[in-house]
Specification:
Largest sheet: 7 strands, mixed
Shape: elongated
Strand order of the largest sheet: 1-4-3-2-6-5-7
Order of helices and strands: HEEEEEEEHH
Strand content: 25-35%
Helix content: 25-40%
Distance between the termini: 123 Å
Structural class: alpha/beta
Number of helices: 3
Length: about 180
């Protein structure tokens, strides 16, 4: 039995194992951050409730990226600038339209991009820096409904007033007299 331990060999083995572990972790982390994206920008007018950094971006219902940044437009206080990171293999056409959508009434919010037409030119992609190509936007269905709600309520109130006038006590009495 050997009583002398080979401390150099044990130390070299431990150092090699630690170095291998560090290299493996850096390699795994690098694979996560090496994914490239194409960057686009869109502008929404009004509230962007539910959107935030990391919110999903869908193209015709399929997840293709996420929101990378939300900022206020310094030239228009009603507009919000939304920067999007999107799969670079995706071809977004100039007539594509972005909107804020929701998964049902209580579901999460996401940015939906409608595909556009195949004959429209493709927007030129930008990687990290520079002016991003702009995807046109439209008002979401829920926001359009919210905007038209006062007008709808006014019409419902007017209809209710007319129904009340038709069903007044005097008209009911007159109608009963005609039937009799």
């Amino acid at each position: 039995m050997e009583t002398k331990a080979n401390y150099v060999a044990v130390g070299a083995f431990v150092m090699a194992a630690v170095l291998g572990l560090v290299i493996a972790l850096l390699w795994l982390a690098g694979a996560q951050y090496s994914e490239e994206f194409a960057y686009y920008r869109t502008y929404f007018t009004g509230a962007v409730t539910g959107l935030g950094d990391g919110t999903a971006v869908r193209y015709n219902g399929i997840n293709v990226g996420h929101v990378s940044k939300l900022t206020f437009d310094p030239n228009d206080p009603k507009r919000v600038i939304v920067d999007l990171q999107i799969d670079p293999t995706l071809k977004i056409h100039t007539d594509s339209v972005a909107s804020i959508a929701s998964e049902g009434l209580t579901g999460g919010t996401y940015v939906e991009i409608d595909g556009g037409s195949k004959n429209a030119p493709v927007l030129h992609q930008k990687t990290m820096f520079g002016d991003y190509p702009v995807i046109q936007s439209k008002v979401s269905t829920l926001q359009a409904l919210e905007n038209s709600l006062p007008e709808i309520m006014q019409k419902i109130n007017k209809i209710a007033d007319h129904v009340n006038a038709v069903l007044s006590d005097q008209n009911i009495k007159n109608f009963s007299g005609i039937l009799a």
